[in-house]
Description:
It is an enzyme of class 2 (transferase). The chain is of the alpha/beta class.
Amino acid sequence: MSLIESFRAEARAAPESGIVAVVNYGRLRDGLIPLWAGEGDLPTPAFITDAASKALAGGETFYTWQRGIPDLRQALARYYARHFGKTFPEEQFIVTGSGMHAIQMSLTALAGAGDEVIYLSPAWPNFDAAAALSGAVPVPVTLDHSGNGWSCDVEKIAAAMTSRTKALFINTPSNPTGWTADHETLQAILDLARARNVWIIADEIYSLFHYGHGRAPSFLDIATEEDRILFVNSFSKNWSMTGWRVGWIKTHPSLQQVFENLIQYSNSGVAQFMQRGAVAALDEGDGFVAEQVERARQARDLVCGILGATGRARFTVPQGAFYLFFTVDGITDSRSAAFDIVDKANVGLAPGTAFGPGGEAFLRLCFHRRLDQVEEAADRLAKWMKSA
Length: 388
């Protein structure tokens, strides 16, 4: 038996990220404009890094609260009061080592070998892979796509459910499509989950990146305290903290000890000086977030205008998040196209094949960058389309 054959089947089957494959191919290209990853181009602002640096210099480098320092959990409560109009005690928050860690902890708590978890596809690929690593079976339900945009048929979710279904993973606003559920759709999903006694893992990381009026609709607008919902989130997107790897779970107070135990046996808690930076992000960062959302809105409109004018790009203007998920007439193999775009346009995009069923023909462009770069990238892509 070879070394790799002695590994668990789930570990051996973990897929290479289709996004990272393109990144590794093109990351060293001179002058390449990287729009493949889900992050902006601004470093973490000083009011956050200064708070972390002060804590680091002050010796906050020891073991800390497994569920997160009280100051951060209280700051999360204040954040929800401001943006969601809901008052929650700090006991409803668990600090995690990234949004991905929050998802892993949720899956560990809910699903194991033979269990099924349903997710909406096209989807951020990490959830599918994380569910499979836990031994569960990820079950995709494709969003509908038409001239009217992306939509969720809740009856398709119901049809996919079995006696083994333990959870529904709902990401809205969506990465990669930009689909944003309205309250009617959220209510239908919640009613279904209640009727089947199934948990919802609600990934609302892009709630504030919403191009309507204010934040996006949330399960929090319609849920009761006893509903089976785990809210997973991250500091990465709103506050330019992708490299920090700090996130959180909002859950029922009765589940705190369970999640504290899961934290203990995974990463044993987030560094305290990093949590001080997270407190500053929540308490001082509303203005910064608002600026980033407006900047992203301008970039969205710019790239949609340039690519739309080619007559070959097909897309729905995203309602939320900061991605354009588009097809190009005549292009069916998005993976090959992504590599070709690196070679010929010197622009990095993510292939739709990385996002599962329903995404195969699409390309994802992250427009959360400064406008001159977005404009240059869109112009390069427009030229590539003329010759592709």
